[in-house]
Design brief:
This protein is of the alpha/beta class. The chain is about 25% helix and about 20% strand. The structure holds flavin-adenine dinucleotide. The site of flavin-adenine dinucleotide has 34 residues, from helix 1.
Length: about 350
C-alpha cells in the first residue's frame, strides 16, 4: 500500500505527560503539529505501573500547564488510574492532535526538516520533539548465573503487585524508590531479602514531591545563574519515605544487604561463599531513555545520552528531548516539571522556525 505522507511544523513522538505538555504550548503558538503515540489509550506509562503506586505529592502539586490535576476523591496522594484519567481529559480539553496507535520506528534527516517513519505513515516535520519516556527500556544488570536461576525473574516494568508472591522467598534488587516501595508491599506477604549495590540513602521523612520540586527549581536557577550547583534532589538521598516505606521500616523490613556475587539454579550466592534459596527475584534496577527511534540519525552519545543544551540536541538543533530526567532539565520527568521544560523547548522552536521563514522569504 502507498505510504501516507504528512507535512507539519512539528512532530511530537510520545503522548505521555511530556508530549502533552509540549502539545499545550504548540497549540498556543499556533503551530501545525501531530503527537504520535504507540499506545492504544491515553496516559503514557501511568497505564503500566504497579497497582499500588501513588504520586509523591497531592493532586494540586502535580499540574500540567493550563489545567491542574483535580483531587482524587477521598485520597491525598493520587494513584495511577487517577493520573491516567487526568491525562485523558487533558488531551481532550485542549483538543491535542494525538494519533494512536502510531509507533515511530525511525527519524531521518531530510531537506528542511526531519522524516518521521512509522508503519502508519510518514511525517515531514521542521522540528521534532522526542518524548518517549523510559518505560520501554527497562535496565537489568548482568550477574553470573542469572540464566540458570530456575525461579521467576522480573523487572519493575512488569511487576504485577504482591498477590502472586504470597509465601515465597523473594529477592528484591535495587536502591531506588521502586525497590523500596515494591519491597515494602512484598514484605507484607512474602519473606523478602533486599540487596543494593551501596547502602540505601533514605530521604528525611518530611520530604515529598513538593520539596523535591522546590529543590529541583533551585538547582535550575543555580545552573542558569552559572553558580555552583547544590546537587539537586540527589543530594537529599534516593528514597522518598512514603507511607508504605515508613511502615516497612517500623516492621524492620527495610534492612538492605550488599549484592550477591551471582545466582544459581536455586537462589543466590553471597560474598562469603554461602548460598541461599529463593523463589523469585525482582529487579528494580531502573530504566534508560527509550531512544531507539533516533538511531538512524547517528547522533553522538555520551554515557547513553544525546548531548543537549537544555532540551535541544547540540548536533541536530531541529531535535528536542523532553521528559527523560535531569539530563535535559531538573524535574522535566515529573508532572509538575514537564510544563516548564516544554514551554522553553516550544519557544526555542517557535523562534527558530520564524528565523528560517525570514531567511527563506
Ligand atoms: P511516558 O509516560 O513513558 O510517555 C511516553 C509515551 O511515548 C508512552 O505512551 C510510550 O508508549 C510512547 N512511546 C515510546 N516510544 C515510542 C515510539 N517509538 N513511538 C511512539 N510512541 C512511543 N513523576 C511525578 O511527577 N510524580 C511521581 O510520583 C512519579 N512517580 C514515578 C514512579 C515510577 C515508578 C516511575 C518509573 C516514574 C515516576 N514519575 C513520577 C516520573 C514520571 O512522571 C513518569 O515516569 C512519567 O510517566 C514520564 O512521562 P513521559 O511523558 O516522559 O513518558
Amino acid at each position: 500500500p502507498e505510504i501516507l505522507r504528512h507535512r507539519v511544523d512539528v512532530v511530537v513522538i510520545g503522548g505521555g505527560q511530556a508530549g502533552l505538555a509540549a502539545g499545550y504550548f504548540l497549540r498556543r503558538a499556533g503551530l501545525d503539529f501531530a503527537i504520535l503515540d504507540d499506545r492504544q489509550e491515553p496516559g503514557g506509562s501511568w497505564q503500566r505501573v504497579w497497582p499500588s503506586l501513588r504520586l509523591f505529592s497531592p493532586a494540586r502539586h502535580n499540574p500540567l500547564p493550563g489545567w491542574p490535576m483535580p483531587p482524587q476523591p477521598g485520597v491525598e496522594f493520587p494513584d495511577a488510574d487517577h493520573t491516567v484519567d487526568y491525562l485523558r481529559r487533558y488531551e481532550q480539553r485542549y483538543e491535542l492532535p494525538v494519533l494512536r496507535p502510531v509507533r515511530v520506528t525511525g527519524v531521518h534527516e531530510a531537506e528542511e526538516g526531519l522524516l518521521v517513519d512509522s508503519p502508519q505513515g510518514q511525517w515531514h516535520a521542521r522540528a521534532v520533539i522526542s518524548a518517549t519516556g523510559t518505560w520501554q527500556s527497562p535496565y537489568v544488570p548482568s550477574y553470573p548465573g542469572m540464566r540458570e536461576f530456575a525461579g521467576r525473574q522480573l523487572h519493575t516494568a512488569s511487576y504485577p503487585g504482591p498477590e502472586s508472591f504470597e509465601g515465597e522467598r523473594v529477592l528484591v534488587v535495587g536502591g531506588g524508590n521502586s525497590a523500596a516501595q515494591i519491597l515494602a508491599e512484598l514484605s507484607t506477604v512474602a519473606e523478602t531479602t533486599w540487596v543494593t549495590r551501596r547502602p540505601p540513602r533514605f530521604m528525611p521523612d518530611d520530604v515529598d514531591g513538593r520539596v523535591l520540586f522546590d529543590v529541583a527549581t533551585r538547582q535550575r536557577a543555580e545552573r542558569e545563574a552559572g553558580v555552583a550547583d547544590s546537587g539537586g534532589v540527589g543530594a537529599l538521598g534516593d528514597i522518598v519515605m512514603v507511607e508504605s516505606v515508613r511502615a516497612a521500616r517500623e516492621r524492620g523490613a527495610l534492612h538492605a544487604h550488599p549484592m550477591f556475587t551471582g545466582l544459581t539454579r536455586d537462589g543466590a550466592v553471597w560474598p562469603d561463599g554461602s548460598a541461599e534459596n529463593f523463589d523469585s527475584a525482582v529487579w528494580c534496577t531502573g530504566f534508560r531513555p527509550a531512544l531507539r527511534h533516533l538511531r538512524p540519525l547517528g547522533l553522538r552519545r555520551e554515557s547513553g545520552r544525546i548531548p543537549t543544551a537544555g532540551t535541544r540536541s547540540i548536533e541536530l538543533p531541529r531535535l528536542h528531548l523532553l521528559g527523560y530526567g535531569d539530563w535535559t532539565e531538573p524535574a522535566s520527568a515529573t508532572l509538575i516539571g514537564a510544563g516548564r521544560t516544554a514551554r522553553t523547548a516550544v519557544s526555542e522552536i517557535v523562534s527558530t522556525l520564524a528565523e528560517r521563514n525570514r531567511t527563506n522569504a
